[in-house]
Amino acid sequence: MKPVNFDYxxxxxxxxxxxxxxxxxxxxxxxxxxxxxxxxxNMRLVQPDLVVDLTGVAELKGVDDRKDEIVVGACITHADxxxxxxxxxxxxxxxTVARGIAYRAVRNRGTMGGSLTHADPSADWxxxxxxxxxxxxxxxxxxxxxxxxxxxxxxxxxxxxxxxEMLVSISIPKLSARARWGYYKSCRKTGEFAHxxxxxxxxxxxxxxxxxxGATESRPIVVTDARQLLxxxxxxLSSSAFDAKAADAMIEAAGMVDAIDRxxxxxxxRRAIEQAH
Amino acid sequence: MNKVALIxxxxxxxxxxxxRTHLADFLRETQNLTGTHIGCEHGVCxxxxxxxxxxPARSCITFAAMCEGAHITTVExxxxxxxxxxxxxxxxxxxxxxxxxxxxxxxxxARDVVMRMDNPSEHDIRVAMSGNLCRCTGYVGIxxxxxSVVADRRSRGIAAIRDGGRKELGPVGSGxxxxxxxxxxxPARTPDKKKSAAxxxxxxxxxxxxxxxxxxxxxxxxxxxHPADVVWDFFGRVGEVASCLPGASLNGEPVDGHVxxxxxxxxxxxxxxxHGVADVTRDEATRSGTIIGSGKxxxxxxxxxxxxxxxxKPGENPAQTRVDxxxxxxxxxxxxxxxxxxxxxxxxxxxxxxxxxxxxxxLAHQGDGAPAPAVAAExxxxxLMTSMIKDRIKQLFAKLFGRT
Lengths: 277, 404
What we know:
heterodimer, A: alpha+beta, Uridine Diphospho-n-acetylenolpyruvylglucosamine Reductase, domain 3, Enolase-like, domain 1, four-stranded antiparallel sheet, B: Ubiquitin-like (UB roll), Alpha-D-Glucose-1,6-Bisphosphate, Chain A, domain 4, 2 domains, five-stranded mixed sheet, 25% strand
């Protein structure tokens, strides 16, 4: 249970990280908190030549509070969100989700950027940040690009990173006063990988109605116009209006073939609506 | 090797270690602080939990080099800690330990609960402590001990500190040291990953158990615009069939129904090369056949066994052929232990989807004499995925909302 022998670098800024990523003669892995990569290294599932520690880059721990969104660096931890060291702009959605990620000892090191890049379908952030409409910003040799969180995940353990590219920040939109949200995950054991996640965000002022079926076998199923599931934007949210049949049809059309699996996912979203905040 | 300097239990502690040395090994091997226990060594059991910069973290999945300059507190450093002292008394009183293996981690996590949670219910405590496993006590005594310390401190007017006193952003342990560019692992690195490919043992036959039942299987049928004779012949050329499986290649043509080969699979950061053998059988009468292969990846010490069964039938008209393919596989070893079935299923689905696509493309090229299309040299789940999933999502939205 010891990793292979790798080299280690702790660059001081993003451009130095990008310089190290250019090297295609060696397998280079970026590490932030290491709470997902660490176990894979220990089990030798991943055998890099060079591990590049991102936590020495001040920019990646920055927070930029803008008019309509808050931009957090890739190395912001789950505990930073949970403890409100990052100002909450989501009616407590992100701190509540953060509180349910793994265990406190993991949340003190695990990062939002690391979780998104590791791209585990069962992870919390990819589902909740997709529901909320967050975006990621990547930087690479040919400049920077921004894309929706749900597009950043290609499949199980695959993030949309070109050669030499890295995730630098996550932009989280500010929810307006009447926004509602919900999040429910089904786990066999507290803190372990979820079997199903249901998440949604309704924000009438911003004309947003989004629902997510997460913890699929691959990327989350994101319904960007979820009025059919969540009801009219101008009406009071009610779980009795939830159309379970429509939800089931949606995820079946998205490729979820197992009927029990679909049932768990539909129930997860229904419970997210029942427990809406 | 590089010099790592930490502050352990209030005193400077320096040692020259490899970058791969995790914090628990640093403390146990170089500082003789064996109170930090190693259980699962992949961040699940909580035995190695200690304080980094005053808050709990897993020392088995935190590299010592990443904590340069940080304050580390082990169970040995909690002798004079007020909360820890109260917890020790409560654990003794409530029978919160038996063998003691989990106890250092339990005390550290329990201290965090007492410090941060104002008025936790039994359920709250159980949830907060669920990252620390105990196989002796059944947790009842542990939970009771924590409840009693919380109640006692709150009655003495000591309030909870929600953030545990942490003010900095980013992973605990980070941010104390200057940048360091490329510290080498060891002067002479053993090329252990190169040798693995060559040293992979090849079994003599894959057929050992005739009633092999794959854990996962997948059935697919498709029709190609070629007569059944042509398709049946195609399936007889194992090399061509294998080359439809992205990343698969054979060492030569089959001899007495045996053939050696390999398949390279890459999923995110995981790369595996399965080397092995396949047995090929064909039944002319039923126009059906099987290819059973088994292989090992020496790097991850994992093995896979898979079967491809096919039946070739005439289609609706003589120029068409219907092909039924069943692909099944079983994965054992490290990769299987790590992988939750869903992840394996996702990768397998992508692999099989690509196989069928390539098979159809190859068969389509049969008649026209054009060179066969090139197939990826390794299965890269990422590059294959983009187009497939985008199509799927597009179809979904087209179906639901009548637009694309």
